[in-house]
Amino acid sequence: MEKLIAAIPFYTILTEEEKMFLSQNCSIVDFDSREALFKQGSFAANIYFVLEGYCKMTYQSGNKKKIVYIAREGEIIGKDYILMEHYPYSTHSLTTSKLMVIPKNLFRKICELNNSFYLKISNKLELKLQETMEWLINLSFKNVEGAMAMFILKFCNKNFKDIGLSRTEIAEIIGYSRESIIHTLTKFEREKLIKTKGKNIIIKDIEKLKEIIKYG
């Protein structure tokens, strides 16, 4: 348990008392693929730290869904709602995943006691949020081919190995229909820009994809 807890960002900044407090109150939970961690609008009780696997965060408005972020190993889910009563989005595991579950009130107490830990965690997450917002804003200006190329360069690499996103999930990320996703992937494969194998997409011509992003 202690080794797993030590994987939390900036763990070394915590005092021995804070480390013990954390280890005595958190738990390690295994999730199956596509299992719900929490649903949008439900009471926000916990913070989650991803030890293994991937998790998608989805915002829903009416019948429309938008995947706003995919968390991977080493990332925290929930710092953004630490002062909120309810979860602002739903989160599901994308793959078999292992997460550390930390009661929100406990995490907040540690942040209040250890200002250095709070500032470093906040800065790390602020940078990640800024990066994500810039990517989503750029994505919103792209046609389907440009958006698809952006998705491929971001998610079809070693940083997201074996993530296994469905065509519907890709559509929920880039904001185009599932049919448009399938059509565009078929076109890219025909032009030898990519190769598909089940849910996996393999990049074959990265420079051409970058060109599509530039002009798409």
Automatic annotation (TrEMBL):
SUPFAM superfamilies from the UniProt entry: cAMP-binding domain-like, Winged helix' DNA-binding domain
Protein keywords: DNA-binding, Kinase, Transcription, Transcription regulation, Transferase
SMART domains attached to this UniProt entry: HTH_CRP (SM00419)
Occurrences of domain Cyclic nucleotide-binding (ranges): 10-110
GO MF entry, a single one: DNA binding
Superkingdom of this protein's organism: Bacteria
CDD domains associated with the record: CAP_ED
Span of domain HTH crp-type: 142-207
Any one cellular-component term (Gene Ontology): cytosol
Name of the molecule in the record: cAMP-binding domain of CRP or a regulatory subunit of cAMP-dependent protein kinases
